[in-house]
Amino acid sequence: MSSSEVEPDTLDLVCQLDNVQGMVDALSLVRWKRHQDSVLELSEHGIVVIVEESGCLQAKVYLKKELFVSYEYRAEGRPRFGVSLGVFVDCLNTFSVSGRSSSIEMCYPGPDMQLLLKSVDSTDACIYAEIRTRIPDTISWDYNFEPAGSTPLSFTVKSAALKEAIDDLEWPGSSIQIVLQPDPPSVQFRGEGHGDLQIDFMYYANTDLLIAFQCDRLVSYRYKYKFLRATTSNMPGSVIKDNRGSKLTIGRGGMLKVQHLVSVGRPTAQHPHIDSAAYQLPSRIAYIEFFVKPEVDEEPVNDA
Amino acid sequence: MGRICHLFLTKDHAFFLHNLLNGDGVQSIAQFRKESLFEDYRISSQNDDRIAFTIDLGLLHRALRSSVSVCGHVTTATNRLQGYKSAVIQDVPISKPLSRVDVVELQSAIDMAQDLPQTLVQGPDLHQLQSFVDRLKHVGELLHITITQYGDLHLQLLNTLTTLGVEFRKLPVVGVQAHVPTGDQNMTAQSRTKYAMEKGEALSVQLSLKHFAKSLQCHLTKPDSAFYGITPLASCLTVIFQFFIPGTRQTDKSISLHCRLPVLDPGSA
């Protein structure tokens, strides 16, 4: 039970956050399994949390320093360490008391290289956590996402609609084909397995669902359903409530990038009449990116 | 706490007792003075006027609830029917009365359960504590609880990957008290606890988080406050619920409810 009293000067990072629930939401989005390892990378710009599976799926949560009430970074280089994502989220969750915003302080490293969390709301009740860290594994492959050509191949769809579509594709299962075509501008999700299911988003017909669309040629790639599902399976309620959009981009070689936005602002319960998506400052948004490798057993169609 | 309990009736009291005879698990003792439950109460048995049996609380609760609604109904019906009354009788099955030996054992278990911790601290808001404990359930199963003589209640959960805890300070203390050491305001919860243990001003136990969560369910009885203490030799954690006489700040002495949580390890005290 050694104390975690450490000299502030020896710490790489001391930061304070006033909306724990937002951080729980952002990290939960990349928690597609109960037990999952993650790597935290600290820098003067903020914290990046990286999660990976089977060399085919990687997710990154960008917690920019603007999300924190204070962010004091003193390290040389960019410290990286591994923590269990499940433990990190469960610990953060104990700080989040429903109905009121709770402020916490996060420090690294503790005396035994732990990640230290403590509540700073009240002097008479203090919640604290010390999370064991480990030396991170090397990332097995570099998710060098490069554009597929001069025109980006991308579309932005309402997050709720994307999640619903991917949930529905569970029925055919295993492998999902994503087709983008410029004429008529549309996106197709096609599943073949136990049965066939095709979901079309037509750009001009559903501008409220398919918000943006950029594509100058037909492209088609297949992705494993379980990886595609991981990109939306733990979408927090706030993303749906805030009516956010998710951006999907297909890069060189068919690498799929899925980007979500999660609000980490102070709860806006006192302004129920204001559209919270519009009310949030852009700086109080956590960016989440998934990278999904395509299945390779099939010849891609028309990828110039 | 569980469906089946012992109902133990004596000349002056009725007790509802959980887990007092079979030992393991959370023990709970609810004691009512006869006047607080019954208008008319007579008891006689060859065993010093004491009777005990087991009863299914679910069935008893259902019978009581329906009699409450029937009573309400009867009152209005009586008014209308000018003096006619109806009686509804519900039988709640009970076990055979406990043997003389078992009754003696039950009585001595009650007597043993009456020994109070030397220091009790008045717990924080029960709902707040429960919401915290519900979240802790995801993280681990073993809970360390430390209570200091200057009103700290420290809950800590340790496992291989994390240490997670909450410390409540400056809680009201009943019983043996010590002065808050000066200059420790800025110390961490762990250091304060360690320091207090070294000075003999705190007791610490390790127990099952599930048991602790179960004892918090007692807030369903709407107590006015709860007190936590560790018995001498750190043999168990005692939680005492306090009820006020409605509309006052005076303790209702005709009702008492307390739980005893078994210790999993004698603790580092």
TrEMBL record, chain A:
One BP term from GO: DNA repair
CDD domains in the cross-refs: PCNA
Keyword DNA repair (UniProt): yes
Principal localisation: nucleus
Domain of life: Eukaryota
Keyword Transferase attached: no
Keywords attached to this entry: DNA damage, DNA repair, Nucleus
Compartment list: Nucleus
Assigned GO CC terms: checkpoint clamp complex
UniProt similarity note: Belongs to the rad1 family.
Listed name of the protein: Cell cycle checkpoint protein rad1
Automatic annotation (TrEMBL), chain B:
Keyword Transmembrane helix set for record: no
Gene Ontology biological process terms, A to Z: double-strand break repair via homologous recombination; meiotic DNA integrity checkpoint signaling; mitotic DNA replication checkpoint signaling; mitotic intra-S DNA damage checkpoint signaling; nucleotide-excision repair; telomere maintenance
A GO cellular-component term linked to this record: checkpoint clamp complex
Assigned keywords, A-Z: Nucleus
Keyword Nucleus: yes
Pfam family, one: Hus1
Record localization: Nucleus
Protein name: Hus1-like protein
Organism: Thalictrum thalictroides
